[in-house]
From TrEMBL:
Source organism superkingdom: Bacteria
Molecular function (Gene Ontology), one example: NADP binding
Annotated keywords: Flavoprotein, FMN, NADP, Oxidoreductase
Gene3D superfamilies, A to Z: Aldolase class I (3.20.20.70)
Cofactor or coenzyme needed: FMN
CDD domains for the chain: OYE_YqiM_FMN
Protein name: NADPH dehydrogenase
Domain NADH:flavin oxidoreductase/NADH oxidase N-terminal: 4-327
Broadest EC class assigned to this enzyme: oxidoreductase
Assigned EC number: 1.6.99.1
InterPro entries: Aldolase_TIM, OxRdtase_FMN_N, YqjM-like
Organism: Alkalihalobacillus alcalophilus ATCC 27647 = CGMCC 1.3604
């Protein structure tokens, strides 16, 4: 019977447990150059020492105007590789595998003078109106995703996550509310996402899995639901996605009836549905920081991996404490064994 601390394997990726640190922007790049610094090093390496099986580095953008803010990580230049490689190497030393979320914020790029998007529709009344990308620029953006993935692979990551959720550029393309284009990227709403997947795969070793994060439902007025996102995800699966990371929302102002519940595990039903209907492995995320609950999601076969975000912001040693609470085997750093006297 599987549990949170059962090792996991997918293609060439092998994880010592099923605990994932999901991508979480730190907005901590001081020089606005997209380069990781000591904050990022300490932040990620602490979670590796803290026992996480897989750490997915925060949203890292394919061009300067693809950042939410000027303080976000980037991979548009080879100069950004060494600082990431240093983090990856140290995380490996402490037994964690490392992924990175490759992204473009599109119309949600707050510091861009003029953000770009599939169509010139602002996020809300307080946001800048984006400029519609030309067809040629869309194709160039696909290439930029591929180049960023190439750099991530050079930095030594074990897995790539493409950000197709939360209302960022890929989501903007596949949502009928934000894509009103009349070219090939409008007649086929998933064309951009599929090309990004293919460009990423070209740069990845054949045994490296590709994760895609999607918003399985939208929270805006008249947003898409699970049936629509299921067919979107199926197209992405056919294009090469090996594992889905199931989130929701983020695409615009939340409608009264779209407001998510505040219950624990609120996104697990979505993850389970995608896993069952598309027959793909999934990561469940969203208020799963109670160890017995996270363990049950694996034991009940609702997801293959569980991500704990805010729980790990509070406590880098979340995984070590969860193993202790669940009485599961875990290798404690010898320096910290006195901190876990009940084992
Ligand atoms: C500070 C912060 C930054 C985040 N940044 C990202 C991000 O870069 N990419 C992403 O896909 N989700 C991001 N998220 C969402 C988390 O990955 C996660 O899905 C969310 O926090 C729900 O999980 P939790 O209840 O375990 O925190 C962020 C969340 C937080 C709290």
């Amino acid at each position: 019977m599987k549990h949170l601390f059962t090792p996991y394997e997918l293609m060439g990726l092998s994880l010592k447990n099923r605990v994932v640190m999901p991508p979480m922007c730190q907005y901590s790049v001081t020089e606005k150059d997209g380069i990781a610094n000591d904050w990022h090093y300490t932040h990620y390496v602490s979670r590796a020492i803290g026992g996480a099986g897989l750490i997915i580095i925060e949203m890292t953008d394919v061009e300067p105007d693809g950042r939410i803010t000027d303080y976000d990580l980037g991979l548009w230049s080879d100069e950004q590789i060494p600082a990431l490689a240093r983090i990856v190497e140290a995380c490996h030393k402490y037994g964690a595998k490392v992924g990175i979320q490759i992204a473009h914020a599109g119309r949600k790029a707050e510091d861009a003078a003029v953000p770009v998007a599939p169509s010139a529709i602002p996020f809300d009344e307080n946001s800048k109106t984006p400029r519609e990308l030309t067809t040629e620029e869309v194709k160039k953006t696909v290439q930029k995703f591929g180049e960023a993935v190439r750099r991530a692979v050079l930095a030594g990551v074990d897995v790539i996550e493409i950000h197709g959720a939360h209302g960022y550029l890929i989501h903007q393309f596949h949502s009928p509310l934000t894509n009103k284009r009349t070219d090939e990227y409008g007649s086929d709403l998933t064309k951009f996402g599929k090309e990004v997947i293919q460009a990423a795969k070209k740069e990845m070793p054949a045994t490296m899995p590709l994760i895609m994060r999607i918003s399985a439902i939208e929270y805006v007025e008249n947003g898409y639901g699970l049936n629509e996102s299921m067919s979107i995800s199926n197209e992405y699966k056919e294009a090469g996605v090996d594992l889905f990371h199931i989130s929701a929302g983020g695409e615009g102002p939340i409608a009264a009836e779209g407001r998510p519940g505040t219950h624990v595990a609120y996104q697990v039903p979505l993850a389970r549905a995608v896993r069952e209907q598309l027959d793909v492995p999934v990561i469940a995320v969203g208020r799963l920081d109670e160890p017995s609950l996270a363990n049950a999601v694996i034991g009940n076969e609702e997801a293959d991996l569980v991500a704990v975000g805010r729980g790990m912001l509070r406590n880098p040693y979340w995984t070590l404490e969860a193993a202790t609470a669940l009485r599961k085997e875990i290798q404690l750093p010898k320096q910290y064994q006195f901190g876990f006297p009940n084992r």
